[in-house]
């Protein structure tokens, strides 16, 4: 899978069932990181409507 921003290869981080992330229906949510531009991507595979989406996730940075 390629980064939507820079085109570099994405590194897999983790997988969750829909119920674990608060989504309705049945499916899997996977997270991938781009080591080149440090963007987090979320891949959503929805089994109920046979759909896969890849999007960049906005991550809020914590203040020290």
Topology:
Blueprint: E1 10-17, H1 18-21, E2 27-34, E3 40-46, E4 51-57
Antiparallel strand pairs: 1-2, 2-3, 3-4
List keywords for this structure.
single chain, 64 residues, mainly beta, 6% helix
In words, what does this structure look like?
Helix content is 6%, strand content 47%. The chain has one helix at residues 18-21; strands at residues 10-17, 27-34, 40-46, 51-57. The mean pLDDT is 88. The chain is mainly beta and 64 residues long. The N and C termini lie far apart (33 Å). A hairpin with a 5-residue loop joins strand 2 (27-34) and strand 3. The protein has one domain. The protein has a four-stranded antiparallel β-sheet with strand order 1-2-3-4. It contains one helix and four strands; from the N terminus they run βαβββ.
Low-confidence stretches: none
Mean pLDDT across the residues is 88
Q: What gyration radius follows from the Cα positions, in whole Å?
A: 13 Å
- Report the oligomer: single chain
Strand order of the largest sheet: 1-2-3-4
Q: What's the total helix number?
A: 1
Structural class: mainly beta
Give the DSSP E fraction (strand runs of 2 or more residues): over 45%
